[in-house]
Design goal:
Elements: E1 2-5, E2 8-10, H1 17-41, H2 43-54, H3 61-77, H4 79-89, H5 91-109, H6 115-125, H7 131-140, H8 145-155, H9 161-176, H10 188-207, E3 211-214, H11 221-224, H12 231-261, H13 266-282, H14 284-294, H15 296-313, E4 319-329, E5 334-339, E6 343-346, E7 349-352, E8 381-388, E9 395-396, E10 401-411, H16 415-443, H17 448-477, H18 482-505
Antiparallel strand pairs: 1-2, 1-3, 4-10, 5-6, 5-9, 6-7, 8-10
Helix pairs in contact: 1-7, 1-9, 1-10, 2-3, 2-9, 2-12, 3-6, 3-12, 3-17, 4-5, 4-7, 4-17, 5-6, 5-7, 5-10, 7-8, 7-17, 8-14, 8-16, 9-13, 12-13, 12-16, 12-17, 12-18, 13-16, 14-15, 14-16, 15-16, 15-18
Length: 513
Amino acid sequence: MMFIIDGRVNSGQNMSMTDRRLAVRMLTLNTVAFTVCFAVWTMYGVLGAFLAEHQVIPLTKVQLGWLLGVPILTGSIMRLPVGILTDRFGGKPVYIGVMLLAAAGAASASLAQTFEHLVYSGLLFGMSGAAFAVGIAYTSVFWPKEKQGTALGIFGVGNAGSAVTTLLSPIALDRLTNKGANMDGWRQLPLIYAAALIVMTVAFALLTKNKVVQSSTPKTLKTMLLPLKSVRVWRFGAYYFLVFGAFVALAQWLVPYYLSVYGMTLAMAGLMASIFSLPSGLIRALGGWMSDKFGARATMYWVLASCTVLFALVIAPRMDIMSPGQGVLADRAGTVTAVSDSQIQVGDQFYPLASPSPESKQTTLSDRGSSMNEGTFILPKSSSWQEPVVQVGQSVKKRELLARGVTHVYFQANVWVFTVIVFLAGIMMGIGKAAVYKHIPEYFPEDIGVVGGIVGVIGGLGGFVCPILFGYLLKSTGLWTSCWLFLAFISALCLVWMHLTILRMTKQSPATE
């Protein structure tokens, strides 16, 4: 494989100092541009939650899920054609086109008066998500194979753009709307995003050089799409559905999650959501290094196993349940002669009763106050007691109920414990994103754009499908934690698929996979 840089051939193996400086500059510009694009791509995560919370534009939970998903849909679907265009024409012109279209969509969002207008604008600025397919191919061709994992990991730090949105957009909305006094001020936020894209486009046009993969034989569209017949491509896509698609979905979904489950302000919810998204984006560089050092396959084992466990740990919702417990039955027939909270007397026989603890008398989460001020309980707490159901003078038969049992189960789903678990899941997803893309230059060195595009499409579709599915799961179950059950299932499914594939590969040539 050879590369053409402004007409000059470079094997990509022995980098001169000039080539290395160019590669570093291109990696830096690609990463910054991707950060801006990713911030724009997830804009509705905060803006949609703001509009829904204040009903500036009436939005239901399901509509909010769709609003979060539509930009992801465009960015996902367009990754394949954008990847093909990058392989054919190079990353510079394609990147510039993507950013200009996204800027137009962001500007359009500032004019929205209805849910439908927001959807159409989201579909347009969702083009910013396709920047990933451009950047992966555009970054790879500047670096030799043994350095591509690290380079792509650094490029993937641009995922932190979602944290920029969740961290800064709530503060910006607070100021732009004058703390709610001028609700129409929200329209300036999409314009700020559009301006950032325009500035980045100008910098990209002035400071980058184009680079095109020179194949030994010219490729037709049919030839370029041949890798899509490989099961390996679709398996990589399934992994990316989880580690990238679910990441994008959660980066947005966690804002309304914290708003509704923990009663936080928009600014605080954005801050807590950024604890998930910011480290996950930054850690991707470490994931690239780990993939180079230990191998992408070993890295993915740790990622998928960890995600399965971590998502399973947060499935249990906040709960305060009163349930029937162990009651007290009469050993023999007789007449009730005394009844108190601590015992019941039938004839000359005494039946001691368990008394409720003071905490058990507080039967609702609101009675206990905000979880921010509670003690930290990792596991559910339960207590049981008995309450008399008979009166003095009443005749009872053998095995008749004297006192009913009551069991109180309380699980606070403490916000800090929850955030730590989600933070760790985000870390593993960030490492996994780099590990998935480490495979592509190794197995498909002349089809990085196409294969990276289709893997990105599948992963991006996860970012589209998940918020919508989360919304429907919430509507049908009434439980915000239903999303974690779905993600734990997907994690386990990917882990089993990978393990079975590796077992099969030990018995036959990898080429037959």
